[in-house]
Amino acid sequence: MSIGSGGLFLIAGPCVIESEAHARRMADAIQRITSDLGVPYVFKASYDKANRTAVSSFRGPGLQEGTAILRRIGEATGLPVLTDVHEPSHCAVAAEGADILQIPAFLCRQTNLLVAAAETGRAINVKKGQFVAPADMRYAVEKITSTGNQRVFLTERGTTFGYNNLVVDMRSLAIMRQMAPVVFDGTHSVQTPSAANGVSGGQPEFIPLLARAAVAAGVDGVFLEVHDDPANAKSDGANALDLKNLRAVLESLLAIQAAIS
């Protein structure tokens, strides 16, 4: 698939690898839906959630095991795979199991991490920090491209709005799209960070609304954390899209894209 080629694509999966069986089940289920609808699909899951609110929160299987799981899922399904990286030393290993390395929003200014990820040659998705002006994301893009790696895109996931809340400025999508292809994260944008007794809460009822607005604004792709049992998800369940609602959401997004094309 070619990111930024004009068609809407989807990045989706569980926040974290809960088990290999669950991650594979989610990849297969989402792939069936996207295949039916003709939507290019990237499977997403994290091997380690290093930025959980509480030290006791589940983080995932770790770098070595998680990378091996992601590699097996990619090989078995034929899907491109995306995962987060949090440390420069992780990048080369994570690149063995993932086609796209994602820079978490909190780390989007970390030069050593951006450069190390870019030097793997993998495509790089940089999430815009909740504290960063959209125009300033050009510096993150420059850090990636300074290595000679031109395969970079940006993801909007909301801006800090007071305590424990985020708001999406739709202007940021157009501003950042002047620098690189842009993805809208419809699930983290409805997160209420650290607002639920040591974990983050969320307002998933607003995922379809914000995603529709973003597609109408002309984004290249949509990022959705999707889970088959959000109430029992081990990470970010409060802002995840329930798998049973995915098809209807995608159908509405495709209709909007067709209307503006």
TrEMBL record:
Belongs to the KdsA family. This is 2-dehydro-3-deoxyphosphooctonate aldolase. It is an enzyme of class 2 (transferase). It comes from Acidipila rosea. Gene3D superfamilies: Aldolase class I. It catalyses: D-arabinose 5-phosphate + phosphoenolpyruvate + H2O = 3-deoxy-alpha-D-manno-2-octulosonate-8-phosphate + phosphate. The lineage of its organism: Bacteria, Pseudomonadati, Acidobacteriota, Terriglobia, Terriglobales. Its EC number is 2.5.1.55. One of its GO terms (cellular component) is cytoplasm. Pfam families: DAHP_synth_1. Pathway: Bacterial outer membrane biogenesis; lipopolysaccharide biosynthesis; Carbohydrate biosynthesis; 3-deoxy-D-manno-octulosonate biosynthesis; 3-deoxy-D-manno-octulosonate from D-ribulose 5-phosphate: step 2/3. GO terms for molecular function: 3-deoxy-8-phosphooctulonate synthase activity. Its main location: cytoplasm. The keyword Plastid does not apply. Residues 3-251 form the DAHP synthetase I/KDSA domain. Keywords: Cytoplasm, Lipopolysaccharide biosynthesis, Transferase. GO terms for biological process: keto-3-deoxy-D-manno-octulosonic acid biosynthetic process. It is found in: Cytoplasm.
